[in-house]
Amino acid sequence: MPGGSNMTLHQFLWRAENVFPDRELVSRHHDGVSRFTYSEYGNRVRQLASALDAWGIEQGDRIGTFAWNHHWHHELYYGVPCIGAQLHMVNIHLPKQHVHHTVSEASDRILFIDATMVRRLENIYNSDPEAFSSVKQFVVMSDSVPDTHLSPIVDYESFISKGTEDYTFPPVDEEQPAGLCYTSGTTGLPKGVEYTHKMYWGHTMGLMTGELGLTNTDTALTIVPMYHVNAWGRPFATVAAGAKTVLPGPDPDSKDIAELIEDEQVTTSAAVPMVWRGLLEYSHNHDFDISSLEYVISGGASTPEDLINSYYNQLNVKMVSGYGMTETTPVTHQSAHKPQTISYTNSELTKMRSQSGIPLPGVQMKVVDEDGNEQPWDGEALGELLLKGPWVTTEYFNSTNQTEESITEDGWFRTGDIVRVDSEGYVNVVDRMDDLVKSGGEWISSVEIEDHLMHHELVKEAAVIAIDHDRWDERPVAFVVSEADTPDEALANELREHVAQSYPTWWAPDVIEFIEEIPKGSTGKRSKRTLRDNLVDEQLRARVQENAPGKH
What we know:
By secondary structure, the chain is α/β, with parallel strands linked by helices. It is globular and about 75 Å long.
């Protein structure tokens, strides 16, 4: 049969070791900063793989991690899949019961733990030891073991000392599962998604393509947590590209990020908008040099246009948006230029960069209405975004029912996102289907209201949710973090008028509540579920009934 070699992660590691042996991986961690050349990194990956083999890990076994971004975690990203085993990245911010569910369902045989997270994992373990019955070995990512009752336990450096740098990886098929991540569980228990070598391979090629593609001249700071959906594929793409890799370590704050950008001359990075807003605010009161930074990618939530403008005007850094999901490895879209958009400036350029963007090579998309009819790309028609591609999942792990609900008979993945697509193919995510406000038979986009509110000079952050209404079915309520010293009803009325100036008057929130902080979920996104559970009471519902418009 004609054809080439299997598409596996081994090829990326080989390229980094042999073509870019002197390029660095810089790791900030609990005990300082470590530096490795890709040649040294490759030796450590093989030593890890050899130790796993000697311990008894076989192809198809799963190994869990509970950790931040550093060289130990990064080595596991390659060492585990390259022996045919599967890396399960456990989200360290999930509720206890969700960690129990994911570790138990995955049947992890070894669990590698961040040295700063041992106490947290102990507490989770103590609340349900049976959930960890499959785990036969705990490994602390360090050169020593803190006091703990977790057992048996060993430090990482002692564990890999049993291996050899001369280890030869076994043959691995491209369809062999290499990774496992779980959704953040915003609606029930988290759902597992498996990634094969081929899925990672294709996704990596997508991240190295086009205007925003990673190259060997880049220095890439991987801020996106490695416990969250493959760190957006950055650990694979930086190595494959031969880029210098910088890892920010445990719980990095704006000061840590700024120092790493300056010290390591970072050229590109990716994170959620919350991180980028924090760095911007830090820059207002601190002097640091980030002139090396050429562009950053913002994703995981909508990117406000004012944030894009602030980065360009105040920091001279391009900010572009991306889109993806756990089920899509995750990146499928980026707001990269087309020939037709290169001349864009000012508001036209900002609008383009704030959208989810165009699909990466290999990804197909379509937009359908409630009856499954395909919608035109005219910048107006709304519908659910459906995706298909080499790194878009066609099934959930161990969940036939979820698969049947989310995958069409002809293999399209239903994202649950309501979008519009313009004539150039740029996707604009209007809302999650579950977060749309369905008022009087019409849709109100909570995302658009949030973004517009955050354009106001006195609004730092906003989240909009739907509240049941007797007449209109649902009405919008906004929770706002204000820059004002004492936000009051006068400001609330001003914000409602601010919305009504750009949207139909009935889109304006019936109630605006000022709060100290918007709650965040385990991935840094606004947690509207927490707002509904903790801040919606009968008094608020009554105010919505009273303030709702008499007619549309």
